[in-house]
Amino acid sequence: MLLTNENYHSPEANHVYMSVSQYKDFCGTLGKIPCEAQAMAKLKGEWGQEKSTALLVGSYVDAHFENSLALFKSQNPEIFTKQGGLRAEYKKAEEIISRIERDEFFMKHLSGEKQVIMTAELYGVEWKVKLDSFHPDVCIVDLKIMKSLRESFWTKDYGHMDFVRYWGYDLQAAIYQEVVKINTGKQLPFFIAGASKEKETDLEIIKIPQNWLDDRLMDVEKEVPKIIDLKNGEYDPIRCECCDYCKFTKVLERSIWADALIGEI
Questions:
Q1: Residue 114 in 3-state DSSP?
Q2: What residues contact residue 200 under an 8 Å CB cut-off, 6+ apart?
Q3: What's the helix, strand, coil split of the chain in %, to 5?
Q4: Could you give the CA distance from residue 153 to residue 245 in angstroms, rounded to a whole number?
Q5: Strand partners, 207
Q6: Contact, 29 vs 168, CB < 8 A?
Q7: How large is the average pLDDT for residues 182-201?
Q8: CATH class of the domain at 11-49+103-260
Q9: Terminal Cα-to-Cα distance of the chain (whole angstroms)
Q10: What are the sequence ranges of the domains in the chain?
């Protein structure tokens, strides 16, 4: 299947190729509970991702810098007024864009080849990636618009950590780097060009340590065979019973004890 910007996110492409977002649906991250049932429902077109205000603000900024704003506007008309301007709750996107564009170092990292699509076989499955800003022979850059760049997250097993590891962006970096390496023969450093949605937008160019990427690749190698079997219908997907999909499709069959409400701590 030949991937293009138009069909990259299509159900057909998602059946043929594995992506980082699809992998996270199946396996989760430290900040996202995995749900095999929801992942399979997404693949079948039975469940979709909700378009929240926070998500659309980030997507607007992404579309601006990848030169696809016209397409974004046609796909999300609800965020615009009749006069064509952004509704009040989405105007933060334009403030973020303005702040980014007056930082020379940040813009230099975003000046690479836009939305470069690559595919490669990795651990027995074909993967697809789309690079926000690709600098051949130099680096890979991904734009992230976050609530905050400094927010600390706590997990039981790892303690406090940054947003990069909590939301699995080190996993994304690992897959992108490896796919680029397979296609070009060169292992390139991975940077997050991060901007925040705070009152005053914070900016950073964040380099992901190579040992983090190496560790995440080992995790992926262990998990991929299970995902392949699930997509091939070898066994029934496990429900997490916590996500919106599981809440929507839940059928009660028995009572539970009160101490089961919050799960493991």
A1: strand
A2: none
A3: 45, 20, 35
A4: 25
A5: 191
A6: yes
A7: 97
A8: alpha beta
A9: 44
A10: 11-49+103-260
